[in-house]
Amino acid sequence: MRASDIVAVLSLSRLFASTFITFTFGSST
Predict the structure, then answer these.
(1) Residue 15: is it exposed, middle or buried by C-beta count within 10 angstroms (0-12/13-18/19+)?
(2) Whole-angstrom distance, CA of residue 22 vs CA of residue 5
(3) Following DSSP, what letter does each residue of 3-25 receive, concatenated?
(4) Where do the structural domains in the chain lie, given as residue ranges?
(5) C-alpha atoms less than 13 angstroms from C-alpha of 24 in its C-beta half-sphere
(6) pLDDT tens, position by position, 1-29
C-alpha cells in the first residue's frame, strides 16, 4: 500500500465514524 492509499482509507474511516456517531447520538436523544 502506498502512503496516499493509507491516507485515503484513514480519512474515509474517520468520515464514516463521525457520521455513525452523529447518527447514533442524534437518534438516541
Answers:
(1) exposed
(2) 26
(3) HHHHHHHHHHHHHHHHHHHHHHH
(4) 1-29
(5) 6
(6) 799 999 999 999 999 999 999 998 887 76
Q: Which three cell numbers stand for residue 17?
A: 465514524
CA distance 9 to 12: 5
The span from the CA of 26 to the CA of 24, in Å, is 5
For the whole model, what pTM was predicted? 0.59
Q: Which residue bears the cell 447518527?
A: 23
